[in-house]
Design a protein that fits this description.
Length: 619
């Protein structure tokens, strides 16, 4: 299709643009010139061989007639003014040929995103906006289609579409430049979409009220539309971005005018569609982005130095107070690993073949100062690491809470202490329960009248929440506890089943046994102590506590420690509001107060030397 310039295109094929302009100016001047009356214009005829002589005569007559026209003199204005070139009418083809755009690359989109969010996001948030190479589908890649690309981007699409239950929202949003392109993309993603419901979000022949009702009517998974309509739906709360997980921009596809979606001037793209992660970020307000005006004190010597001295005084007073509190507690530690007659039991436990044989030893000790008030009896272990991850995970909390399904089907975390050699499930399972501390103690007071056993309360030594919530026996349902645990085996290192741990109290057996609960609460450090009993102060001479004198403790020596190079001990102590005897916190406060005081003194010296008399550090 040619350009309409007023002349026949075949008559000017060889003419340049300048000659065309001259002819156009001459045609404009001809109406202004007056021809004589005797001048006759004759129609132009085609040349032929037979009429050659006749036309030659007419040509001479025409030359004579034209010569009678007076010549027009050139003026200075005609010399200076050049003929104006008439603007040629352009077609769409000419525009596209002269302004053919280059294909866009991923860097263009990355720079556009960075430019838009540069003043709206922090530096750390802008780093999260980096687009990976896997986020782009090349138009020239014939090995991938839109469906295959979406399968790579969202490999768990079938699971995501089943979990999506929100109305007026989509999981996948595809933004394109026109309605025709949106329909084309819907056809291309048929293989990927599957049973998911898709909706068209463009303005062609569809009113926005109809689209809002359509989105509210049911669950929609995929939305394909233009930025203008998507923006209008978001502004009218017709489309929610809460469930949005994936955004696909068809930004490099060009229409008939070779304009991409980002080249259309009517579409401010980056202000319309925001990806899901950015939409869920806090607003770009001064409060939520921590840009509110702040108050900062003026640091001067008159304010800093008194503050340092005051803090040093506070820390020192707290340290002295805590130190006096700790020193008011009484504590006695007795290492019985190889003490007294326990040396024979220690050697006996080295032999695994004699591990089941009982061994009882006695250790004698003296209390020089009476323990007043409540006295707590602990057993302690040294170099026993209960804080190892695999050790702590080797347990079944569902079994310990009394679930019958887990009673005979322990968790895989208990392996290899899940079943015994005969395949019978172990209750309680795991390495923690299997390594329970099984030494027992009997404390005696050797008075002048004779030896007297010290009464210890063995119940109520565990936490209330552990006893009543975390650990529960399976429901008996008119059955005894042994019948409930029928079909299970005790841990490998246990000498009796879990329902016989306390033969003196039937309500202290099973998973709610106090000794078992205390042991199952793992210690954070390799050296620890656990509560064994509390002094019963109802009878004399233990009403006020433990009197001074000689004592003996009879130990049923069962727990071996030589395999992990550990030690065992007995701890007798009193408690205060601060707890047991622990010097760490008082010493920490005292050391901190000394450091603050030293810094305060140094700052005072510098101030007297450089700042008090108006001098500064630059002199």
């Amino acid at each position: 299709m040619g350009d309409d310039l007023g002349d026949e295109w075949w008559a000017h094929e060889d003419k340049s643009d300048a000659s065309e302009a001259e002819e156009e100016t001459q045609q404009e001047k001809q109406p202004t010139e007056k021809a004589p009356k005797n001048t006759k214009t004759k129609p132009e005829k085609r040349k032929s061989v037979t009429e050659g002589t006749v036309k030659a005569k007419k040509k001479k007559n025409n030359e004579q007639k034209v010569s009678n026209i007076p010549p027009k003199t050139e003026t200075d204005d005609d010399k200076t003014t050049k003929p104006k070139r008439k603007r040629k009418k352009k077609t769409i083809t000419d525009v596209l040929a002269s302004s053919e755009p280059k294909p866009g690359c991923p860097a263009d989109l990355q720079s556009m995103v960075t430019l838009y969010f540069s003043d709206k996001r922090s530096v750390i948030e802008q780093e999260e906006l980096a687009l990976q190479d896997s986020s782009f589908l090349s138009c020239n890649d014939l090995t991938h289609t839109l469906s295959s690309f979406l399968k790579q981007v969202c490999p768990k699409w079938s699971k995501i579409q089943k979990q999506h239950k929100e109305k007026s929202s989509v999981v996948l949003l595809i933004v394109c430049s026109s309605a025709l392109r949106a329909i084309d993309l819907l056809k291309q993603m048929t293989a990927f979409k599957g049973e998911a419901k898709a909706v068209k979000l463009f303005a062609k022949h569809i009113k926005i009220e109809e689209q809002v009702k359509l989105l509210q009517k049911g669950v929609t998974h995929v939305g394909v539309g233009t930025p203008g309509r998507i923006s209008a739906l978001i502004e009218k709360d017709g489309l929610s971005l809460k469930a949005l997980k994936y955004v696909v921009l068809d930004w490099n596809w060009r229409d008939q005018k070779l304009r991409r979606m980002v080249d259309v001037p009517e579409v401010p793209l980056m202000g319309k569609v925001k990806p899901g992660p950015l939409a869920r970020r806090p607003d770009n307000s001064a409060f939520k982005q921590q840009r509110l005006p702040a108050w900062s004190p003026m640091l001067t010597a008159n304010t800093v130095l008194p503050f340092f001295y005051f803090m040093a005084l506070i820390c020192m007073l707290l340290g002295v107070w805590l130190l006096l509190t700790v020193q008011s507690t009484q504590e006695l530690k007795l290492d019985y690993t190889e003490a007294g007659t326990c040396n024979l039991c220690f050697e006996k436990r080295k032999n695994v073949s004699r591990a089941a044989q009982p061994c009882i030893c006695t250790v004698v000790f003296n209390i020089k100062k009476a323990f007043k008030g409540d006295v707590f009896f602990y057993y302690g272990l040294i170099n026993f690491h209960q804080n190892l991850r695999r050790y702590m995970d080797s347990r079944d909390d569902a079994q310990m809470v009394g679930r019958k399904n887990n009673l005979k089907s322990p968790s895989s975390y208990c392996i290899p202490f899940e079943k015994d050699k005969n395949g019978v499930p172990i209750a309680p399972c795991g390495a923690v329960a299997n390594s329970i501390f099984n030494d027992s103690f009997t404390l005696s007071y050797m008075a002048s009248s004779g030896s007297e056993q010290v009464p210890l309360l063995r119940k109520g030594i565990s936490w209330y929440t552990d006893k009543n919530i975390k650990y529960r026996n399976p429901s008996t349902e008119n059955m005894t506890l042994p019948q409930v645990f029928e079909g299970t085996a005790p841990p490998l290192y246990w000498q009796k089943p879990v329902y016989e741990l306390d033969p003196l109290d039937k309500n202290n057996n099973g998973f709610i046994n106090d000794d078992l609960i205390v042991w199952m609460r793992e210690a954070a450090f390799p050296n620890f102590k656990k509560l064994y009993g509390v002094l019963y102060r109802a009878n004399k001479p233990f009403i006020n506590g433990l009197p001074a004198g000689n004592y003996s403790v009879d130990i049923s020596y069962n727990f071996p420690v030589q395999y992990f190079r550990g030690r065992k001990e007995v701890v007798l102590t009193t408690l205060t509001w601060f707890g047991g005897q622990n010097h760490f916190l008082p010493v920490a406060y005292l050391v901190t107060s000394c450091l603050i005081l030293l810094i305060a003194i140094l700052l005072t010296v510098f101030w007297f030397k450089f700042g008090k008399n108006g001098q500064n550090m630059e002199e």
